[in-house]
User: Fold this.
Amino acid sequence: MSRRILQFFEAEDGQDLAEYCLITALIALLGLVIFYKVSGGMGDLWGVANTRLASQNAAAGGASPAAGAAQR
Assistant:
């Protein structure tokens, strides 16, 4: 019985799989962090572009696209 317990603790059959799972989890976590940081910057960029387009549209005397479509 003690020999089987010793063999159980010395076996390394699932060690590679566990290491691959940990590496995969680390890569996924890093990917999420990068995505979170980039998405905030992209949101700011789209917000600035939207503000500039709206101000230029108002300065040119244009109406919103929905109002323009209703007038046609």
User: Anything to note?
Assistant: DSSP finds three helices and no strands in the chain. The first helix runs from residue 2 to 10.
